[in-house]
């Protein structure tokens, strides 16, 4: 596997801009000074932590399916884009646990490993599939986090999901290192 640091325009290392967690099922999560990732579980004290799925709609379908959504990451550049369109959004507002800057999260392949804070490792499992809760948060935001590529394919911009392979503390300012999986790469699909 190749280890690399993703940068924006060669000027900035990829960093963690904010971390968030919430012990109850709510759309938004308050930001924290740090979060602790627990191997095989997710974010300590977060409502979505566990070995089996915790998102209510998925629990209703099959409560025993594996939790491929232990950690939700969003790129801060999406917040910038949404604010430019008139939405009021900041870290944690869209339910993410980790807000990054300087990395193309949506362009990562399945199986990418993100080394966070020196110890924690999150393996990317897929895309967050935006749901109606986004429009309940702010009207019109659902359309703003969906787009189409030049081939007409739907692009979901509401972040990525992952599982925790190695635990550790993660806090704002920590670097993000990226370890790509072996070729051929599989593009992200909703999980």
From TrEMBL:
For this protein, the record's SUPFAM superfamilies field holds: PK beta-barrel domain-like
Domain annotation MOSC: ranges: 29-179
Q: What is this protein called?
A: MOSC domain-containing protein
Q: Which organism is it from?
A: Microvirga puerhi
């Amino acid at each position: 596997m190749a280890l690399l640091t993703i940068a924006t325009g060669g000027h900035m290392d990829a960093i963690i801009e904010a971390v968030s967690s919430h012990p109850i099922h709510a759309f938004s999560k308050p930001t924290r000074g740090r979060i602790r990732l627990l191997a095989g579980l997710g974010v300590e004290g977060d409502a979505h932590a566990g070995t089996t799925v915790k998102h209510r709609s998925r629990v209703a379908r099959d409560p025993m399916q594996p939790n491929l959504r232990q950690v939700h990451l969003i790129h801060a550049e999406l917040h910038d884009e949404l604010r430019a369109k008139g939405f009021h959004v900041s870290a944690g507002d869209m339910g993410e646990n980790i807000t990054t800057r300087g990395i193309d999260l949506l362009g990562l392949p399945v199986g990418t490993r993100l080394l966070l804070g020196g110890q924690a490792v999150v393996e990317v499992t897929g895309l967050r599939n935006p749901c109606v809760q986004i429009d309940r948060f702010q009207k019109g935001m659902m359309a703003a986090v969906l787009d189409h590529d030049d081939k007409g394919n739907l692009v979901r911009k509401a972040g990525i999901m992952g599982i925790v392979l190695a635990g550790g503390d993660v806090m704002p300012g920590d670097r993000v290192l990226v370890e790509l999986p072996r070729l051929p790469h599989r593009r992200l699909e909703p999980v």
